[in-house]
Amino acid sequence: MDRSGAKSLSVEQHSRSKEGITLRAVFIGVLAVVAINLWVTYAETVVRSSRLNLSFFQLTLLSIFIALVGGVNPLLRRIRPRAVLSPSELLTVAAIGMVGSVVPTSGVTGFLVGVIGSPIYFATPENGWAEYYHPHLQAWMVPSDRDALRAFFEGGAAGVDAWNAWLAPLAWWGSLVAALLVGSACAMVILRRQWAENEKLVYPLAAVPMEMAEGASSRSTLPDFMKGRLFWFGAVFAFALFAWHATSWFFHGMPGIRFFPHAGYFRFTRYSPGVYIQPLQFYTIGFAYFANLQVLFSIWFFFLVHVVEGGIFNRLGYQIERSTDTFSADPPTEAWQCFGALACLVAWRLWVARTHLRGVFLKALRPDHPLDDGREVLSYRASVLGLLLSVIFTLFWLHRSGMDAISAAMFLFALGIIYIGLARVVSEAGVAYAQGTVTPQAFVMDLRGTYGLSGACLTSIALSYALIDYMRGLFTPGLAQAVRLADRIRGNRRLLLLCVTVGVFAGLVSSIWFTLHLGHTHGAYNFSRLFFNGNPKAVFSTTLGQMRTPGAPELSRVLFFGIGAGLMAVLTFLRYRFSWWPIHPIGLAVAAADNVYSLAMPVFMAWAAKAVVMRVGGVALYRRSKPLFLGLLVGYTAGVVLAFTVDAIWFPGQGHQVHWW
């Protein structure tokens, strides 16, 4: 064998030795999470540029992943081939990042710090917060040092006392975050085989890093997906639009592109709900292209049904009272209808999985049970035990915070619907954005009636908005993708969840520290109204209205919840009973969600493009067209990063929002 052949064989052998979860992959993944948390916090609080933390596959994470695949690896291949990152290592980085990047701003940190810091700092004799809330606030739940709160919200010297005031509350809230993380991880491990192997879900979000990482250890300079002209056409086209738009910020005579983030709000009639015009939302289009055609059709079709239904209700003047809080979707008729559909979706999927779930619990009780859990990232015994302990601790935590047992159980039930339901929607539909339509807090207050809830319970409910996460399922959708990515990680994968947990902890510590630091430096009251002024104050104001004027259970909401569940049951029956039935029911569960107004047009465009491709050239043409949509994703991501860089240098505090839902 000649020297070049021996060298090639040596590189391939070394590449095989890097399969599985390696120390450097974990280090890169955790480092990426910390960088993302600092980046997003700075972008959304100080620079006030694009909203970077709203999607299930964060744009910041995708930018780092692209840099590793398309920049770092080709460089290493030239100067040190043995150091090239293998596909398993790249997917480990993606798995850690998809969960850890949830933490900053609107994920955990922004609302957490903003909500627990508000009830004492913003209390005035006029708003009555001191009278209604303060008797029920416990020292371990909120910082009570007014000087420390003033230093954070108004800016001031961050002495030891100013930092110490936050430590105990943040530690206790951190324990709740940890319990939710563990419970979500265990649930996704338990359901992975059913979803991925028995039901053959596509996992479109996870498919993107899989496509990009494929062939990463080959000897070619560029990764496989970057080699064709289609990729470069899509990437250059998407990036050029952003470059032109950013240039127009400096030259006022140069017209910008109105489609960033959208051109306008279109209504079909004066009575119907509207839709944002976003034909250039390539981020949504790129991910959606990897989803099933019937699922994509379902998303935009049921949005149109929602528009028609809303228009009819508005024209007739029929409507129940507005949503109980600012986070639930409006109108509440359709919000509760969609939430009922989501609950039915979760219940049906668990019923379909009953045989698998029975085997999982038997395996947890009897290690000699034939069900094999060797390919899972966590044993079934550990998963079942972890899920049970997580549920028990969460109920205990909520009860200690002031909720009575019934309210805590109802709250956790609604939370479970959102977490599992959104994980299912994302894994099947491939939407970059989605959310529930009714908050767990509104679910409790509307169904129980606030006249039967104590002041301590309502105070606890108000504080629980600290983890609202726009009802996107918190860590669960990311964990669903992470355990799916683990299928492609060769060798040992049992350490993946531990590495993910380390990433989340590192992200939480770094984002909280940076948020408090920026608050003490600039004054958090000067930041975005979303986290430290508007939304937290609205949470306590709306809940105070429930305390002052308590009401009876909202039976009209129960009616529409039942209508939604019934419609989902009928559509599911039709789909399973008749092979020719063309409408997938999943879109009904999210049709009225706030961000679907922005999602509908890009999903329609992805559906139309894929439908034409499949009709003209079938699967072969679909596979050949993938690089075009990966190119659109890469170019769009690079364009948003360019826009942020321009904002950070030339427009700090007055940034331009070119990317959000």
Task: Give a brief rundown of this model.
By secondary structure, the protein is mostly helical. It is built from 24 helices and two strands.
Topology readout:
Blueprint: H1 3-17, H2 23-47, H3 59-79, H4 87-100, H5 109-121, H6 129-132, H7 146-154, H8 160-198, H9 204-213, H10 229-247, E1 265-267, E2 274-276, H11 282-288, H12 293-316, H13 332-352, H14 354-365, H15 380-401, H16 405-429, H17 440-448, H18 455-463, H19 476-485, H20 496-522, H21 529-532, H22 534-548, H23 555-577, H24 596-650
Helix pairs in contact: 2-4, 2-20, 3-4, 3-24, 4-19, 4-20, 5-22, 7-8, 7-20, 8-15, 8-19, 9-19, 10-24, 11-24, 12-24, 13-16, 13-23, 14-15, 15-16, 16-17, 16-19, 18-22
Strand order of the largest sheet: 1-2
Q: Ranges with pLDDT <50 over ≥5 residues?
A: 1-15
Largest sheet: 2 strands, antiparallel
What percent of residues are in strands? Answer: under 5%
Order of helices and strands: HHHHHHHHHHEEHHHHHHHHHHHHHH
What would you call the shape? globular
Distance between the ends: 56 Å
Summed up, the helix count is 24
Describe the fold and architecture:
It is a single chain. The protein is mostly helical and 661 residues long. It contains 24 helices and 2 strands. The protein has helices at 3-17, 23-47, 59-79, 87-100, 109-121, 129-132, 146-154, 160-198, 204-213, 229-247, 282-288, 293-316, 332-352, 354-365, 380-401, 405-429, 440-448, 455-463, 476-485, 496-522, 529-532, 534-548, 555-577, 596-650; strands at 265-267, 274-276. The protein has a two-stranded antiparallel sheet with strand order 1-2. A hairpin with a 6-residue loop joins strand 1 and strand 2 (274-276). Helix 14 (354-365) crosses helix 15 (380-401) and helix 15 (380-401) packs across helix 16. The longest helix has 55 residues, at 596-650. Residues 1-15 have low confidence and may be disordered.
